[in-house]
Amino acid sequence: MKWIKDEEFIRGNIPMTKFNIRVLTIGYLAIEEGDRLLDIGAGTGSISIEAALHGAEVWAIEMKRDGIELINKNKSKFEVNINVIEGQAPVDLPNVKFNKCFIGGSGGNLEEIFYYLDENLESKGVICGNFITLKNLHQFIDLLNKYKYDDIETQLIQTSYMDKIGLMKGNNPIFIIKGVKR
After folding, report:
1. Splitting the chain (182 residues) into consecutive groups of 10 residues, what average pLDDT does each group show?
2. What's this model's pTM, rounded to 2 decimal places?
């Protein structure tokens, strides 16, 4: 499997899950051939593209028009099939059963998204979220507990990269949280 480096994606001003975090997130989701992944707040589509390349059927929802355009451009560039939805979760989500769900952005609707997933995420389905704020982290963990998810794992990941002159530049720390539906 070829992992895609950040610079290979067509980028704009939309946030993108960076390479190191993307690899870990796909690992936490345990994406396999035949999975059905819902990517909420898909941004540039980096998680969706990697998951599709691993053999998942993917639905990606993004509310920003710039993001939708980037997802479609990247989808074409990497020649993957992704069901792209312009809209907001959960009101614009399809009535489809998923076994994996990634939340990269919730638009402030985490509670409503969990209510949707209560019906649309299969038993033993995996949910994974990436967050930069403590508020969203705590709300996500509270919802995992409220909806009785098992195997909850939380990681704080801090990555840095070396710039052209040799200085280390830090990226935002990211919380990666995973749970498995009962």
Report:
1. 89 92 97 97 97 97 97 97 98 97 95 98 98 96 98 95 93 96 96
2. 0.94
H or E stretch covering 100: strand 98-103
Rounded to an integer, what distance in angstroms lies between the CA atom of residue 171 and that of residue 141?
23
Please name each of the domains of the chain with its CATH number.
Answer: 15-180 (3.40.50.150)
Q: By CB neighbour count within 10 A (0-12 exposed, 13-18 middle, 19+ buried), where does 51 fall? A: buried
Q: Are 106 and 112 in contact (CB under 8 A)?
A: no
pLDDT at 1: 60
DSSP strand pairing (150-157 vs 160-162): unpaired
Name the CA dihedral angle for 180, 68, 57, 16, rounded to a multiple of 10 degrees: -50
Four-residue CA torsion sign, 170, 45, 52, 34: positive
